[in-house]
Amino acid sequence: MADPSNSNVERSEEERWREWAAQAQKGDKVAYNRLLKELFPFIRNRIAASLANSDWAEEIAQEVLISVHKSLKTYSPSRPFRPWLMAIVNFRRSDFLRRHYGARQDRKAGLDHPEFLRKYVTDPAHAGEYKDIEAALKSLPSEQRKVFEMIKIQGFTAQEAANKTGMSVSAVKVSAHRTMKKLKEILK
To answer: What's the pTM value of the predicted model, to 2 decimals?
Structure first.
């Protein structure tokens, strides 16, 4: 008798996984084992290249398999398997990285931390620069200054600034661009 696993070679990965998942949902332990056995190296190889530490791939792949086990009943065999699987892979990878980097308290610094201020915030000894920029902004017409401050300082999108000012989105973008050019000329 021919080995039934050999007949799977001719079918695509997608077809095999979809069929094995459907069979596993019905309680077929052999199909379930085949599915997990074939998914593990696929998952591990898929995520290893996107990680800073390739050893994490093994751990994340195991977490993905646990999630596949827990949520296999939610898979619909009438739909493609790979997108369902990749959603789990992406979620588990993100979850792992969030836990890993969130736990690194030694690398966190508050915005008011002296080291952070020294490295990333303009040196207070150069306060004159702030005054020059403020003076240049004040020299602009109020509407132009308002649009510029909304976009470049407060972080509004062009659409949000347009909504607040009653201008079109393109007019807001043009105004911000022209203001930036004018400020560069003033601050030379």
So the answer is: 0.51
